[in-house]
Description:
Blueprint lengths: L1 H28 L7 E2 L2 E2 L6 H14 L7 H8 L7 H7 L1 E2 L4 E2 L2 H6 L11 H7 L20 E4 L3 E5 L2 E5 L2 E4 L5 E3 L4 E7 L16 E6 L7 E5 L13 E2 L4 E4 L10 E7 L5 E2 L29
The structure holds zinc ion.
Amino acid sequence: MKKVLLIIMPFVVGGLLIGLIILIPCMLIMNFFGVNTTDGYVEDNFQYASEYTSILNEHLVEKQDGYVSLERILYFYLRNENSNMSEIYEDNLDVELKRMKPISSVCETLNKKFYYGCASDEIQVSGQIDEYQNKPFAKPIDFSKVVITSFFMEQRIVNNEFNVHKAWDLASNSKPEVKAVCDGKIITNSFTYQENIPDMAGGYGNYIMLECNDINPKYSVIYGHLFPNSSKVKVGDTVSKNQTLAFVGTTGNSTGDHLHFEVRDENNKYVDGMSLVSFSEDDINIPNKDEDYLKPPILR
Ligand SMILES: [Zn+2]
């Protein structure tokens, strides 16, 4: 009997080990650690929204030193007890290049701390972006004049209804100008509202749609809730990056003066516009081996 056990034991132990080796990556893929991401954005982000929004205002409005996605922050936050989101944002931000660091460079510079999520096999299955991304867009508005009130794919309750916001909301009472983020063409210039008041059934309200023609893929950008009669363009106009298009208002389904900044790719799929916006003075072009560097996180 003992002999049989001695023969069987190595197989049992080996089997268990192999089982664990398979199980751990499966747990990671199935998001055992508590956050589901779909197409790169975080589902059930309601509980993180207000804290994340205040961190965004610190970095995108006050310091203007670069954007780190909620998805990246939660990747570390949910694995590391006692960590804080603001510190993780800073760990993931390259303040010189003013953009999110590749995941492996975050882990390299974290040698002072021990971070779960930095094991090389875990990085591989994480789907985290491991390259610097190009930032082809100019800012759609002067960020020093706004407050960020809603981020891309934020879950919120508006008029007692649950919704997922597929764009960015940038609020401002000073009626700032909105600008072309790219060189492109005006596709829509809809200014049906004559008064700067909300209409809950009015969708985008007065809005402009710009199609970029200087970037591949060809993104299209919607500027929503614009001020009545403020358009400086017409359909078919060719505009250049940074050109003024109109002014911020609160027409359509809106609760106060703000710009709704929405971006779609050429397949009409919503993408995270902020991930495309450059925060650095000079346009740093970062070449990439497979030339898909323009893909924002959602397209990963
Ligand atoms: Zn909006």
